[in-house]
Amino acid sequence: MAPTIDPKVPRHDLPTPEPESPLRSRKPYRFSTLCATVENPDQKDQYGSSSVPIYQSATFKGVGNVYDYSRSGNPTRSHLEHHIAKISSAEHALTVSSGMAALDVILRILKPGDEIIAGDDLYGGTNRLLTYIRSHGGVVVHHVDTTNPASVLPFIHPTKTAMILLESPTNPLLKIADIAAISKDVKERAPDAIVVVDNTMMSPYLQRPLEHGADIVYDSATKYLSGHHDLMAGVITCNRDDLKKAMAFTINSIGNALAPNDCFLLLRGTKTLALRMDRQQATSQLVATYLHSLGFPTHYPGLPDHPGREIHERIAAGNGAVLSFETGDKELSERVVGAARLWGISVSFGCVNSLISMPCVMSHASIDPKLRAARGLPEDLIRLCVGIEDPVDLIDDLEHALIDAGAIAFDAQQNKYIRVVPSTNDELNAAVQKLGLAEADQQEWFVSAPGKIILFGEHAVVHGVTAVAASVDLRCYGLTTPRNDGKLSVHFADIDNFYHEWDIESLPWDAVTPLAAGEEHSDVLDQVLIDAICAGPLADLGEDAKSAKAAALAFLYMYLMLSHPRRSSFNFTARATLPVGAGLGSSASFSTCAATSLLLVNRAIMLPPPPQPTSAPADSSAPHVHVSHQGRRFIPPTTAEQVNKWAFVAEKVLHGNPSGVDNSVAVFGGALAYTRAGFSLGGKGGMEPIQGFKSLKFLLTNSTVPRDTKKLVAGVGLLKTNEPELVDSILKSIQSISEEARRALADPELSRVELLAALSALINENHQHLVTLGVSHPSLETIRATTAAAPYGLSTKLTGAGGGGCAVTLVPDDFQDSALDSLMAALTQEKFVPYLTSVGGSGMGILSPYTPPNLGHASATVVPPDQVTPPQTPGVEPADEPLGDLRLAFEKQGGPQLAQWADALGRWLYV
Ligand SMILES: Nc1ncnc2c1ncn2[C@@H]1O[C@H](COP(=O)(O)OP(=O)(O)OP(=O)(O)O)[C@@H](O)[C@H]1O
Ligand SMILES: C[C@@](O)(CCO)CC(=O)[O-]
Asked: Which Pfam families would you find in this protein's record (predicted)?
């Protein structure tokens, strides 16, 4: 049964430009040479043009009567069709407007009552068209497992079977059909039946089914033949004149032939087919081997255990550049797809750029889910379509996506990344699944984020100036507790103990434009959604609840965007040790807590699993992740970035026009120089950590004068519009101040005394600029005067948005404790609230759902999933109320003890 044909050598007997030699006969050109040499000896160009001209003409004046109307024939298309026939070893080629148009033309050969036997793992579009002709054309369609030729036999009827439709390898499971064996079986049992092969996955370079008994072959030329995703086209090849005539008649009748411009582009694309394919499939082999070695079920004919590999090797000359793999969990796969950067999320394949997709959600979504399940198409399947990028970059990007999604994790013992299997009973993985995947909305998540001081650059940072900022030791905390009553509630303990709940179904879901997998929130807020929230769930909140309403709007906005379509039912409680609305970034720390909680509940982020403990606690050579698990920096930067993006979205809802500095500090912690992207003054946008800031001592004084950042920022914006020269010169000066401060902080030559003196001078200077911008307040000037007066002589500036709120005073190292006490007393006397703070601490934190590792006892690393939140709440009586223990205890906490209480709950994992 095995054909004697060598798949690597195309057979063709069409005229080709093979040079004649009187001295010795030449071998036929090989494939890539055929691709590159577009020449039809029967259709020589009158000027000898190197590239086939585009005959952009609908009509022809009948010269030679070859062409009259481009629907029926066009010289550019003739060149293309000759070329396609040549590289496909075919007598005839026809080109139409898409791959589906090609199938449509082929299916029109059928008559009502005819029967088709088709594969059961077909492209969704093929399936859709077959369903259509079944219901509208009276054609009977049998879907069978074509990977087993024997399963085709019972369906072959000597007269009724009119067509067999095969794909090999199939898309997306890469199943192999023995085209040669099935063609032979069909010809023996139903001689009139036509064997049709969709060859798109292979292209004529790797597989030429006409050589194996097929009657008609079609390709979506949108894929490999053109190679650049810049056109749609379909090609049909065959050897039989009668079939060609019938299909040419259809094309002429319905008018779906390929347009001249697209013919030109396709012709150009085919020249590099072999070159592209060689690179793409070499990289595919590397990617498939990488995934396979991690333990993911991977589908690629180049893998040693791929079913049907020998058949494929016999029929085809390569394995192509599409592969797929399973993670074991649909949401996990969605996160992998969403986390990829270089791999573009897109349907289709065959392009020079690499693509990633989930067939069940994208290309095969048109197949009924039950049918998908019946046909064994895993919902978690990820398809990779490999392009020509550098394989190292592609694998690196994929690895990052797998790590970010939690599909692989570093194993300290093996010193390598290993797959996290969501569905095994392994104790560790079961806990991870419970926490991060399966029931994330059924557990409590406790999170926190710090406030900040801006030492230099507030307001100016909105307009592109670099700000110097650091986290403070005051934080906002957020707790989600599951509800099972279809309701969503928020409790803002710091804002008049505000509590509100909504029926989830009553929320304005219709106004939500869901983000596609991996799509990021746009730079601008969705005003339709904001209006719908204000007119719906928040309509009954008046001006007196302005602050809570703003926070609820930010929360609901993210909930609706992130919970579509999960619609989890839970309560979110927020409370802070930070003064709300005092310029210390309370809104950003609230936004960060809300964003983190919502991402966790919606499984859009998950914690990496805890690594296996190494043998000794003092193992200084333990890798980073292991050390992280000992307490602190455990949350990967990519997860932090994701949180930061959503915290910025919430800040936009609360603020109008935030620069992003506050949420960046709330998420990343430490001290940093932050420049807003897309604005010019601070050079290119981004953030850089600043060393040396942490050692500084600051006094924060809350004027207790309420103010609204949104209004203050808008006020500066207005001033900039009205007095651009004044504001621009202030912005330039503040930029120099920030730069000077960074230089001073990084200068090893500068003595401590000199550094503090330099910073003090810059503080005064920056404050004066803020006065000119109109954002100071008499209370702030009083605080400045009090701290500057003898005997203190300290430098103070407003921090944050100003207009009241807080002032920050730099306290030199040698400043006497007694002087500090008396200064604080003096400020308190004036009804201000002074507070000594340390800066540069941790950013966003999540209370670890893992038990502290009992090193040396691997089995003790994971708590039973039902104990992931602390079993005992220090200092709080066990609750009788229906609220969870933790929520009750949290809501009872007040003021300064909150931080201590939260710390004592367990291990916090930080960015
Ligand atoms: N703990 C909290 N609970 C609920 N909402 C909060 C909380 N903290 C802040 N917010 C929201 O943020 C708003 C305060 O934001 P605003 O930007 O005016 O102050 P800030 O962030 O402290 O100041 P700055 O932006 O100058 O640092 C509040 O009105 C409320 O809507
Ligand atoms: C006033 C401002 O510069 C800081 C608020 O803390 C606003 C911002 O940067 O978003």
From this structure: Cys_Met_Meta_PP, GHMP_kinases_C
